[in-house]
Write a structure and sequence with these properties.
Oligomer: single chain
Helix content: 25-40%
Radius of gyration: 38 Å
Shape: elongated
Strand content: 15-25%
Distance between the termini: 93 Å
Structural class: alpha+beta
Length: about 260
């Protein structure tokens, strides 16, 4: 309730003992009722409830069958007949209303709760309606926007930079280089990468993983797999933290260099 009501408002309780049905209905039905209620012909009924009772089992509550038929003629692809599944297992609730003048009243207490669903013969039709609604919701409305800078600078991707570089010199200072680890690299062929590694170790005997990643432009994890097969990792000494070729590969590289 709002603050004005809590300070000194009144709650109309004349209909507090009236029994009310609470019904959960499909979205298409709710929209149809709302559109019909807003039309000038307010006297037209929205729908009608049909109660079926087995006279031989009048004492059995499960013999009661509820159904609802839509009264509107302009329902489109929406089914007109629905079954109502009644349930009494719910939290006790009351229905409140509030007028434009701020008058609050109790309209009744919920006695039965119903779940509304199409009849079996209308399931396929209702499924098609749901698919159409889903497809419509997935269609994005495209918009055309005219940009102020028509030199095309904003349309050219710049390697190694986040975002797009502006033609304004002041804006260039705001750009941030992309971290090398964030750049997505494509794996080379394994044999081709091994040849590149041998050539690098011909140039110098020791390399760090970071240096090899920069030289080969390969993913670090992929390089580690190759290095574990071809190289030895130095954990101590003057070359700590670097890789060097295994003795058997060193000899083959030296022989190739001699030739």
């Amino acid at each position: 309730m709002d603050e004005d009501y809590n300070k000194g408002g009144f709650l109309e309780t004349g209909k507090a003992d009236r029994s009310v049905w609470l019904m959960k209905c499909p979205l298409a039905v709710a929209k149809s009722w709302k559109s019909q209620a807003a039309s000038p012909s307010d006297s037209q009924p929205l729908s009608k409830v049909v109660l079926s009772l087995d006279p031989l089992k009048s004492d059995d509550p499960s013999s009661l069958q509820f159904a609802m038929e839509m009264a509107g003629s302009e329902t489109g692809n929406m089914p007109k007949s629905y079954s109502l599944n009644m349930s009494k297992d719910f939290v006790p609730m009351c229905i409140f209303s509030e007028t434009n003048q701020g008058t609050v009243a109790i309209e009744g207490k919920v006695e039965h709760k119903f779940d509304m669903k199409p009849h079996e013969e209308n399931i396929e039709e209702y499924g098609r309606l749901c698919r159409e609604r889903t497809n419509k919701s997935m269609i994005r409305t495209r918009q055309v926007q005219v940009i102020d800078n028509d030199r095309g600078v904003h349309m050219r991707p710049m390697p190694g930079m986040v975002g797009l570089i502006s033609s304004n010199p002041k804006d260039k200072k705001k750009t941030t280089p992309v971290k090398q680890s964030d750049v997505k690299r494509t794996r080379r062929d394994r044999g081709e990468l091994e040849d590149i590694m041998f050539k690098l170790f011909e140039r110098q005997p020791n390399w760090t993983l970071k240096q090899l990643v920069q030289e080969t432009d390969q993913p670090a994890q992929f390089l580690k797999e190759i290095l574990n097969e071809l190289c030895v990792y130095n954990k101590r000494g003057t070359n700590q933290g670097t890789y060097e070729l295994k003795p058997e590969y060193k000899k083959s590289v030296e022989d190739t260099g001699a030739e």
